[in-house]
Write a structure and sequence with these properties.
Helix content: 55-70%
Radius of gyration: 15 Å
Largest sheet: none
Number of helices: 3
Shape: globular
Low-confidence stretches: none
């Protein structure tokens, strides 16, 4: 994990905000950091993008896909 965190810092010029993922397992944190590197987005930008996508996925009936299941 150390190498991936160093790669994040080198790529984005800032440390990964580990304090924002304290409830995650080490495996999940590693996957999140790798997702950031793959998308070439910081954690903040990646979570902002996923939040925007989640809030705009409402269908025309006013229910989200998870509500219609």
């Amino acid at each position: 994990m150390f190498k991936v965190l160093c790669e994040y810092a080198k790529t984005f010029g800032e440390d990964f905000p580990i304090s924002k993922v304290v409830d995650e397992t080490a495996h999940d944190v590693l996957a999140i950091v790798r997702a950031c590197l793959d998308a070439n987005k910081t954690y903040s930008a990646l979570t902002a993008a996923s939040t925007t996508t989640a809030t705009t996925s409402t269908s025309s009936s006013g229910t989200t896909s998870s509500e219609t299941k």
